[in-house]
Amino acid sequence: MTHFNPFTDPENFNMRRALIIGIDNYNNFSPLNGCIDDAKAVRDLLQNHADGAPNYECKLLAGEMEDGTPITRPKLREACRELFQNYRGDVILYFSGHGTLTDEGGYIATSDGEKDDYGISMQEIMQMAYSSTAGDILITTALFKDFHSRYKKHDLYVMCEPKFSEILANI
Q1: Would the pLDDT of 120 be above 70?
Q2: CA–CA separation, 3 vs 18, rounded Å?
Q3: Considering the entire predicted model, what is its pTM?
Q4: Which residues are CB-neighbours of 115 under 8 A, at least 6 positions away?
Q5: DSSP of 55-105, one letter per residue?
Q6: What residues form DSSP beta bridges with 157?
Q7: CA geometry: angle 124, 62, 99, nearest 5 deg
């Protein structure tokens, strides 16, 4: 029996899928506490409805890729492409970890990020979303802006793409 995977089967248009990322440890930034736990909690919330029925098919990257390697720029970029490409269902992207806003735009930091090369730009992620055939898209991040602090000093950015109309909340 073949197991259905909505991340690789574009024919399933009724499913929903989510890419949920939490990174606590970085090569060049201070470690964080709780980002992986936050990602797991989001996964647990999205996987099933209150009655236990399936809700979102979740791919969890809890501090590392599914193969156990670090969440690097190329690997996170590929995971985001898989999330958005050739899919018509609803999509959620959730990220908890370091991030920053620069003159060039916002960035989510990957485990190999460094000063002036933090990780993946939100512009790149948004371009993937805009180019996608997905239905409704929700992108939410819990970003820790101080790369030298372990404490939860963050902004929560929520970007909803219901058929590409944007809502941005900075809480």
Answers
A1: yes
A2: 17
A3: 0.79
A4: 28, 147
A5: -EEEEEEESS-TTS----HHHHHHHHHHHHTT--SEEEEEEEEEEEEETTE
A6: 141, 170
A7: 40
